[in-house]
Design brief:
The structure holds 2 protein chains of 2 kinds.
Chain A: E1 3-6, E2 10-13, E3 18-22, H1 36-44, E4 52-58, E5 66-72, E6 77-83
Antiparallel strand pairs in A: 1-2, 3-4, 4-5, 5-6
Chain B: E1 14-23, E2 26-32, H1 36-42, E3 47-50, E4 57-59, E5 71-74, E6 82-86, E7 96-99, H2 114-117, H3 126-130, H4 138-148, E8 162-175, H5 179-190, E9 195-198, E10 216-218, E11 221-222, H6 223-234, E12 240-243, E13 246-252, E14 256-262, E15 276-290, E16 294-296, E17 309-311, H7 312-320, E18 329-334, H8 338-348, E19 352-358, H9 366-373, E20 378-380, E21 382-388, E22 395-401, E23 408-416, E24 419-423, E25 426-428, H10 431-435, E26 439-443, E27 448-453, E28 458-460, H11 470-484, E29 497-499, E30 523-525, E31 530-531, H12 532-540, H13 546-553, H14 566-577, H15 598-602, H16 619-624, E32 628-632, E33 635-640, H17 648-661, E34 664-667, E35 672-677, H18 681-688, E36 701-707, E37 713-723, E38 726-731, H19 736-750, E39 757-760, E40 765-771, H20 775-782, E41 798-803, E42 806-811, E43 820-826, H21 830-840, E44 847-848, H22 851-860, E45 909-916, E46 928-930, E47 940-950, E48 955-963, E49 972-976, E50 981-987, H23 997-1000
Parallel strand pairs in B: 1-7, 8-9, 8-15, 9-12, 15-28, 17-24, 18-19, 18-24, 19-20, 34-44
Antiparallel strand pairs in B: 1-2, 3-4, 5-6, 5-7, 10-11, 10-29, 13-14, 14-15, 16-25, 21-22, 22-23, 26-27, 30-31, 32-33, 34-40, 35-38, 35-39, 36-37, 37-38, 40-43, 41-42, 42-43, 45-48, 45-50, 46-47, 47-48, 49-50
Classes of the chains: A mainly beta, B alpha+beta.
């Protein structure tokens, strides 16, 4: 189980958190303008990387805040956590 | 045969304290401090079990947790009975009862032993190959295979013991209290680290604590006496916590470890009352030092599994620690110097050693010369080719090894013995290290896997790191711990080591025999009866990956996870396949290191704590009034209230009728309630619900439907505008937490510009719903300060009110289609307001109803239940709820998905009503719906989602989803059941009062 450094609460057990899938996917501002394919791209298509992955996490049983996390999925090392809206601190 | 097998014991055995115990119904005696294994050996008992597949007689082979053979059933026929317990780990106590497993009628005469004779036709993969054909026979085969599978018996009644979980946080965790672990713990604690030292044994010091040899000395003292002083010193350190009988089961990422602490297993049963038996320790350590030692390797030769064949190190431990001789005429068989230490221990006590068989041609160490001086015959360059004796070894035959070690040459010599000690060198116990994600490397010189890459802040020291000589262990431990803990002072001024051992070794994975391989039984995995022959067969059949060979031959898949034989399996594979060791990897070591009891895993989460549940503030009233409960999410909800021996159907019919004829009352406190505030609250609701919210006036309520972004219905409920910027949203009972999570998600990540705040207030309010034609009269008695006239308080509106000076919120909303009121009051007043309503409704036959009646009443009105009539594949259009989807709003969650090519299909499953031809026939929920039963295969059009007998309509009603059902009203369909086909007609899902006359009736 990871120890996750919540940007609002500090280090907590993974069991307090929920994973929320790939990060930095922005909901289209004008969904009605999109074709079926474009909408499906937003709705369904997610990366599943072996290596550095940008993810959304939620401190569900804590402050309820969403934040972003950079995780190496091959060894579960957390490279960085940062608040929503912030730029990723690592590439 | 029982001469005295007990010699001078160590300080760990209390010879003044005699303990009696029963094994296989026979009473034996041992001493306090004995394990079941040492006590049995002291009584001359070697045969303790039968092997899994061939039912071969098996004896005690080791002295620790790696034991593959001596697994026994503890506490026969009692509620504590436990299978597969290692006799080498059980500390005996007065009254212990244990027996052999996997044998019938007894361990001495076992019918299953016939499998041994049948072994030529029971090769690896026997079951896979034999029971394949014909396919339809599998069910018959399975019955018999299941009967013969498994080891031991599981208990049939509840476990009487108490277990618990404990969190531990420390700076440094040291696993293993052998010599390196003790030194590491001292350096860590003395340098200010909060340290935890754990060991699976009942004593500290590992194998060094009984090492009194003249050939390994520290500072001119025997290793044991030097270590004893060290242990004395560390036991006084304040910074150090020591836990014995504590076995680390799992080493996860981020230095999170699970350990099992045994607290009462060594006590007589009558002293265990009300004590915690085992504790699961959840350890978070900043740094981990693994000092788990090493496990001696057996040697793989023909018939290497007979009772009386032990690891040489086990023989040494039994004599040095327990004072027990495993045999009176011993032979040692080795490929390295370790067996000579065992020899010296036996020599010192005058126990006969018939011979030492050594694979090596040349042996050059002080200790071997010393052994030779004692007139022990050493056969150099020899190997054991066979053993004899059924229930106990009595003879071996040996032959000379060829130069390359691949064949045997010369004449066969037979030697008598009653005990054979084998030593194939040492395997570092890297199990925990690899569990943590560590990567191993193979060291060619002595053919061992050792830690290479550490995935977290941890280090392996001592023999689990591949340091086998005392000198290496001590020097390397000092060096690496200083570096690892970043400390200047090692705490050890001078350390002088004298060692008489030499590290040379002649490694031959599979020893040759004069017989062809097909005729030998050289066991690699003792517990699962897999032999070198099986492994070679697997390779011939094309298996290459170690993981595949493992599963095909079951090597390493027993309760011991192949702690002894896995290395040989790898060696034989690489030799046979001509590949390098480590090229195909090793098998994965999985937690737990040694088996855990289920009790330890569940801890206190048993009985009513198995799964936490939530009670409404009115719960006690429901209990007092004979309610039956239903689990909804985590909630206990009143299901129905049977009166005078009513069954569920009768109670629900009565409740439903009363609610429509006069008055019903429902505890709706479990509905999720989310308080929404902020200047953008209306805009927020506009975006999350399908319908429009900006024009909802203060004091009004509205039903809302929430979708997922894929357009499928997610949740529903009524939301009330309490003030300009203040709403209270209700959600389904089960969906509350997820809805809040979803709303927070959008608010924080997609629309952070909105000024909106969300709080869950589900637990803060009790919600009481009073419905029926007499509801107004009842509520007016309870809430006296409110004008309930339809003009002042119409349907779908809200008022603040007071009951006895306590503020409450009253809504006129209805889930039954009746005129009804929902009273929300601070939770701790819930029960008294409920009782007030009951009192006020006495003259109107006010009837409490549960969830079942609620479901029936809403089904009469065709109201959906999200999760029952929907299943995440239903859009609002599929539910025929087009009316609630705003055409005007530019966007809301899920809007774009409502006109994807898939969601606009006309033949999607759509919600319809179903009426049975026979009005008394009630459909089964979940039943399939078809149009044509003659067609093959029959096309499934949909299924029944809700079904009831309506006492108000006096007929059976049902809701279901049917492909293209929207356009099928009046059509006849068929519900095929096991014994009959039921004819139904597709109907409007609103069965009762479509015009809403009841709801709007002037009361």
């Amino acid at each position: 189980m990871f120890l996750i450094n919540c940007p609002f609460c500090g280090e907590r057990e993974q069991s307090e958190f929920k994973a929320g899938g790939e990060a930095h996917i922005v909901r289209p501002k004008q969904p009605t303008e999109l074709s079926d394919d474009e909408w499906a791209e937003y709705l369904f298509m997610r990366k599943n990387i072996k290596g550095i992955q940008f993810e959304r996490w939620n401190h569900f049983h804590g402050c309820r805040k969403w934040f972003n996390m950079v995780r190496d999925t091959s060894n579960d090392q957390i490279k960085a956590v940062y608040k929503m809206g912030e730029k990723p601190p690592v590439k | 045969m029982t001469n005295n097998l007990r010699f001078k014991t160590s300080k760990f055995i209390d010879e003044t304290y005699r303990v009696s115990f029963k094994f296989n119904n026979k009473t034996y005696f041992g001493f306090k401090g004995d394990t079941l294994a040492s006590a049995l050996l002291a009584n001359g008992v070697h045969l303790v079990g039968r092997s899994f597949k061939y039912h071969r007689p098996r004896g005690i082979m080791t002295s620790g947790s790696e034991e593959p053979n001596a697994i026994i059933q503890l506490h026969d026929n009692s509620s504590r009975t436990e299978p597969n317990v290692r006799a080498t780990e059980v500390e005996i106590y007065e009254g212990l009862v244990a027996s052999s497993q996997n044998c019938w009628p007894s361990v001495n005469f076992d019918i299953g032993g016939i499998n041994n004779l049948l072994s030529p036709i029971l090769p690896a993969g026997f079951y896979y190959k034999t029971f394949m054909w014909p396919p339809s026979f599998w069910k018959k085969y399975e019955y018999f295979i299941r009967k013969s599978a498994g080891l031991g018996k599981s208990p049939k009644v509840a476990d009487p013991d108490i277990y618990e979980h404990n969190y531990i946080h420390c700076d440094v965790l040291v696993i293993g209290a052998g010599i390196s672990g003790i030194m590491a713990a001292k350096m860590s604690a003395k340098n200010g680290y909060k340290t935890l030292l754990v060991d699976e044994k009942s004593y500290l010091g590992g194998s060094s604590i009984y090492d009194n040899s003249e050939f390994s000395k520290i500072n001119n003292q025997t290793t044991s006496s030097w270590l004893e002083k060290e242990i004395n010193e560390i036991s006084k350190l304040e910074n150090l916590e020591i836990k014995t009988r504590t076995s680390v089961a799992a080493f996860h990422g981020y230095n999170f470890l699970l350990a099992r602490e045994n607290l009462t297993d060594h006590l007589p049963i009558n002293q265990r009352e009300k004590k915690v038996r085992q504790r699961l320790l959840k350890i978070r350590a900043k740094k981990v030092i693994t000092a788990t030692g090493s496990i001696e390797r057996p040697l793989i030769f023909d018939n290497n599994d007979r009772p009386g064949i032990l690891l040489s190190s086990a023989i040494k431990k039994y004599i040095d620690l327990y004072g027990v001789a495993c045999g009176e005429n011993n032979v040692l068989f080795t490929n390295n110097d370790s067996a000579y230490e065992t020899a010296m221990s036996l020599i010192q006590r005058g126990i006969k050693i018939n011979a030492i068989i050594d694979n090596r041609e040349q042996i050059d160490s002080k200790i071997s010369y010393e052994v030779e001086k004692n007139n022990i015959k050493i056969y150099k360059g020899y190997t054991v080719v066979d053993t004899y004796g059924y229930r106990r070894i009595n003879k071996i035959s040996i032959m000379k090894l060829s130069k390359d070690g691949q064949t045997v040459i010369g004449d066969k010599t037979k030697l008598n013995c009653d005990c054979l000690g084998v030593s194939g060198g040492w395997t570092p116990a890297v199990h925990l290290f690899t569990q943590s994600g560590g990567k191993l490397k193979f060291r060619e010189e002595d053919q061992v896997f050792i830690p290479d890459f550490y995935p977290s802040d941890q280090i392996s020291i001592g023999s689990c790191n591949g340091d086998f000589s005392l000198e290496e262990i001590v020097k390397n431990t000092l060096y690496s711990i200083k570096k690892f803990l970043n400390v200047e002072n090692s705490e050890y001024k001078t350390i002088e080591i004298i060692s008489g051992l030499n590290l040379s070794k002649r490694n031959i994975w599979l020893l040759p025999s004069d017989k062809s391989i097909g005729k030998t039984k050289s066991f690699v995995d003792y517990q699962n009866d897999s032999t070198s022959k099986d492994i070679k067969l697997a390779l011939r059949e094309g298996f290459r990956s170690i993981e595949h060979v493992k599963r095909y031959t079951t090597t390493g898949m027993g309760t011991d996870q192949g702690k002894l034989g896995n290395m040989h399996a790898l060696g034989i594979i690489s030799e046979t396949a001509g590949t390098k060791m480590g090229e195909h990897g090793t098998t994965t070591f999985r937690p737990p290191y040694t088996p855990l009891t289920f009790g330890t895993i569940v801890g206190r989460n048993v009985g009513e704590f198995f799964d936490i549940f939530r009670r409404t503030p009115i719960h006690d009233w429901h209990v007092a009034n004979n309610a039956k409960f239903e689990n909804v999410g985590q909630w206990k909800r009143a299901w129905y209230y049977p009166k005078n021996n009513e069954n569920m159907h009768q109670a629900v019919q009565r409740e439903s009728k009363a609610a429509r004829d006069s008055a019903g009352i429902l505890d709706a406190s479990t509905l999720g309630k989310i308080d929404i505030q902020g200047t953008d609250a209306s805009e927020f609701l506009n975006r999350v619900y399908t319908n429009a919210w900006s024009k909802l006036a203060v004091g009004k309520c509205r039903y809302g439907l929430m979708l997922n972004e894929d357009g499928m219905v997610y949740d529903d409920g009524v939301t009330t505008r309490l003030g300009e910027n203040h709403y209270i949203m209700t959600t389904t009972t089960g969906g509350a937490a997820n809805v809040l999570g979803k709303l927070e998600d959008y608010l924080q990540t997609e629309w952070p510009e909105l000024n909106v705040y969300l709080s869950s207030v589900t637990d803060h309010y009790a919600t009481i719903s009073v419905c029926g034609p007499n509801s107004k009269k009842i509520v007016s008695k309870v809430i006296t300060d409110l004008d309930l006239s339809d003009e002042k308080f119409p349907h779908m509106s809200f008022k603040n009110a007071k009951i006895d000076n306590i503020k409450c919120r009253v809504m006129r909303i209805s889930f039954t289609g009746e005129h009804s009121y929902e009273i929300n009051i601070q939770a701790n007043y819930g029960k008294s307001v409920w009782e007030k309503c009951m009192e006020a409704g006495k003259d109107f036959n006010i009837t409490p109803y549960g969830t079942e009646t609620m479901h029936l009443l809403r089904a009469e009105k065709g109201f959906i239940i999200v999760g029952q009539d929907t299943d995440a594949t239903m859009t609002p259009i599929d539910l025929q709820m087009d009316w609630i989807v705003s055409k005007k709003k530019y966007d809301f969650i899920g809007k774009r998905s409502l006109y994807r090519s898939d969601t606009i299909r006309e033949d999607r499953k759509q919600l319809v009503g179903l009426l049975t031809e026979n009005p008394e026939e009630v459909l089964e929920e979940g039943a399939q719906i078809v149009a044509d039963i003659k067609k093959s295969p029959i096309e499934m059009l949909g299924h029944v989602t809700s079904s009831y007998y309506s006492p108000n309509l006096k007929k059976s009603i049902a809701l279901g989803v049917v492909k293209g059902g929207k356009n099928m009203f009046g059509q006849k369909l068929i519900i095929p059941m096991e014994n009959k086909n039921i004819n139904v007609t597709v109907a409007d899902p609103v069965f009762l009062d479509k015009e809403g006359e009841r709801l709007n009736a002037k009361l």
